Amino acid sequence: MTAGHDTDLRHHFDDELDAIRRGLVDLGTLVVDNLRHAGLVMLENRLDEVAAVKDADKAVNAGYEDLEQKVFQILALQQPVATDLRFLVAATRILYELERSGDLAVNIVKQLRRLDGLPPDPTLHAILAQLVDASSAMFGRGVEAMATMDPSIGMAAESEDEKTDQLTSDLFSAVTERQDTLGLEASVGMFYVGRFLERIADHGVNIAQNVTFVTTGAFPEDD
Predict the structure, then answer these.
(1) Could you tell me how far CA 54 lies from the centroid of its own chain?
(2) How far apart are the first and last CA of the chain?
(3) Fewer CB within a 10 Å sphere, N or C end of the chain?
(4) Which has the closest alpha carbon to 124: 179, 87, 85, 75?
(5) Helix 82-115 vs helix 184-216: angle between axes, to the nearest 10 degrees?
(6) Cα–Cα dist 112/141, whole Å
(7) This model's pTM is above 0.90
């Protein structure tokens, strides 16, 4: 086997890996877009748009299955080592984070439909608006980390996510103070929505930290 042939094989392998990375970024972008859509549906009480959010998640699920198959094929047929192997292992983790976040966006609008719209409370609405923005931004940072393969995003992700955690706590406190007025069903629904948004941000953190693992060989918390 010639050196030129080895070089061609390496280039082909690199192209396959880059195609997976770009696929992850595209899939993450779909999730971000649908998360923001779900937030608008919730905040504007657009019950007529619930089905659109659910339909958009079908593309996320299809992309997840396609990329997962490609990753497993490479793991089975190639012999990746070092950074390549870390990337493929991280890709399987990231795919889970993406697919689960897509499901959570759908869960948000399902809660909205169960409640027949948000309770008409300005304080809850204001906190939720900030929480949607913070959660979307944190998840977007994870997608940005995949696009740029920048390890510093993962290193800073935990501290950046503190805003989402605080807003979630603020929402829970506000709901608890209004339980008698809201009623049990609405209160529980708001707790669920807050937890869904918090988890989406957590998935963004996990994605960014997996990128750090790929590029440095260690997760941020290992430091």
Answers:
(1) 16
(2) 43
(3) N
(4) 179
(5) 170
(6) 26
(7) yes
CA distance 99 to 31: 8
Q: What DSSP string describes 180-193?
A: HHH-HHHHHHHHHH
pLDDT at 223: 46
pLDDT single digits (tens) 157-170: 999 999 999 999 99
The two structure tokens encoding residue 72: 């497993």
Question: C-alpha dihedral over 222, 80, 89, 215, to 10 degrees?
Answer: 40
Q: Are 24 and 95 spatial neighbours (Cβ–Cβ below 8 Å)?
A: yes
**Amino acid at the residue 217:** G
Q: Give the per-residue pLDDT at 4.
A: 63
17 CA to centre of own chain:
21
pLDDT at 10: 63
CATH class (in words) of the domain with range 3-222:
mainly alpha
Instruction: Quote the pLDDT of residue 89.
Output: 93
Question: Can you tell me whether residue 78 is helix, strand or coil?
Answer: coil
The closest of 34, 192, 213 to 113, measured between CA atoms, is 192
Residue of 103, 89, 91, 95 whose CA lies nearest to 56:
103
pLDDT-flagged residues of the chain (< 50): 1, 222-223
Identity of the residue numbered 123: T
